[in-house]
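User: tokens in, sequence out, please.
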């Protein structure tokens, strides 16, 4: 984490001269910390129409999953604001903030709610090798820290979520049956809902609802 500390210190030296001092991400009012453990922090970010964001700092790698679209205005520290068109629900991307921390703010200038989740990767789960076929669905992005796949299940369809640990993020919402070794459970997820798993044993999930389920699985290496 030495590189992160140096990068953050350099960023803060520049930010200190700016009129709006940035806050840690968990102090931005609409970044709601919903879950945290040794490996991840999960933020649910919902900006209502007209919301003006607060300048805040990202310093950990993050996997962002878009839930609801709206036009936004994004302003990186030291740069003019830029209008961003709506992102589609399910659009997912990884940003390597550990190497290059960033201070920015995002405002909702559209007509709907801008809703996105941010799964910060704090530490790995100890895997040295993950089989190429350990996939919950088509690969969205993969690097040394995560393997991110898209999960789309018709009613009654199944897939497997692999270890060593990971976060399933719900885009559509739905009802899932999760089958663990020797146990199973029914889980109801709203849009932006999540399910953390920790352990080497795979978890089979089945769409137990009446509508298609759309989610994104973040396998943490």
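Assistant: Sequence out:
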């Amino acid at each position: 984490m030495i590189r992160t500390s140096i990068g953050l210190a350099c960023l803060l030296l520049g930010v200190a001269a700016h009129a709006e001092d940035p806050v840690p991400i968990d102090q931005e009012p609409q970044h709601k910390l919903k879950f945290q453990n040794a490996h991840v922090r999960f933020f649910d970010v919902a900006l209502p129409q007209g919301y003006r964001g607060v300048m805040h700092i990202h310093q950990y790698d993050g996997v962002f999953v878009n839930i609801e679209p709206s036009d936004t205005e994004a302003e990186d520290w030291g740069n003019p604001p830029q209008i961003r068109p709506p992102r589609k629900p399910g659009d997912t991307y990884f940003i390597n903030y550990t190497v290059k921390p960033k201070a920015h703010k995002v405002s909702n200038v559209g007509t709907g709610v801008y809703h996105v989740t941010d799964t910060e990767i704090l530490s790995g789960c100890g895997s040295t090798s993950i089989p190429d076929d350990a996939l919950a669905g088509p690969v969205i992005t993969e690097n040394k820290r995560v393997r991110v796949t898209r999960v789309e299940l018709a009613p009654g369809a199944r897939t497997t979520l692999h270890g060593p640990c990971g976060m399933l993020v719900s885009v559509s919402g739905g009802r899932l049956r999760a089958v663990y070794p020797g146990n199973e459970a029914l889980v109801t997820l709203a849009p932006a809902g999540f399910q953390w798993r920790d352990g080497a044993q795979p978890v089979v999930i089945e769409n137990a609802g009446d509508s298609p389920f759309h989610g994104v699985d973040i396998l943490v290496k």
